[in-house]
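writing this on my phone so excuse typos. first protein, seq and then structure
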Amino acid sequence: MGGTVIPGLVLGGGSYGAGIFAPTYEDDESLDAGLLTISTLGPFADYYLDPAGGLHVQAAILFATVAQAKGGDELGQVREDSSGSGFGLMLGAGYEIWIGEQWSVGALARVTYVSASLEGEDSELEYDFSAFVPALLATFTYH
């Protein structure tokens, strides 16, 4: 949600999220886990290179929370739920076409980077987590 502060520049706040089913981690050993949920919230800027045109770029600085569900009980799987918080950055570029006096529709390519420190719920387990989350989205914008 945001508003135009000068022609072509929109400032606002946004929430971005991702759910990853059964991720596999590769380090010294392979770990399988349950659902991984990434939630972010923060201010954004969206700049239309030509206010009457459709090409735009956006960026956001984000507060991030990450929750990791435990995997199964077999060796090599995450054995407990863990969660934590950190920061994120979002960059995107898109193009929109006008479909009405105040409405446009388009596509947006976006990548979100998240870094967080996670702690296990049942033990002293602590680890650092980072991820790049790419997305290709359809957009509907009221100007």
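second protein below, same order as before
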Amino acid sequence: QMSSNLKQYQIPFASLSLGKHEFEFEIDGKFFENFELSEIHDAKVDVKLEVQKNQQGGDLTFIMTGEAKVMCDRCLEDFLFPFSQQYLLYLRYGDESFEATDEVVYISSTENRFNVAQHIYEFIHLSLPMVRVHPMDNEGNSTCNKQMTEKLNQYSAKTDELISDSPWNKLKDIQLN
């Protein structure tokens, strides 16, 4: 169910003439409040949406540039991850509205509007890498939070000690013939 806060992301698709149309959206932290499970809580992303309307429906090109605040997998501190990506979505007319694949969405000819909020949300998440760590500085050093990194290293050293004291380690020395 689409939140009423997301009405501004509707395109008046039915009333668009054939040809090219452009829409612009500014995405910020407020946008992500509409999505319960969002890994992103703050961002500043400019979305330029080019709609090429044709007889079959339309081709939507999302051009996204900006940065999203994500948690570093290494030191757990938030940082801004910059990105610039482009995604294509094909809208096609059908008897009813449904998502056929990640790239193809069928809309009923009776729908006058198409809301792109969910797609913007998904495309921003797709723009982020699976592993999110602070970038290196110009000298090639990590820009992670130093105190946190040291703490985590202490804990992982302790864990290694515990593992090496384990009685199971003695089993590794047994040779099987």
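The radius of gyration is 24 Å. thats all i got for now
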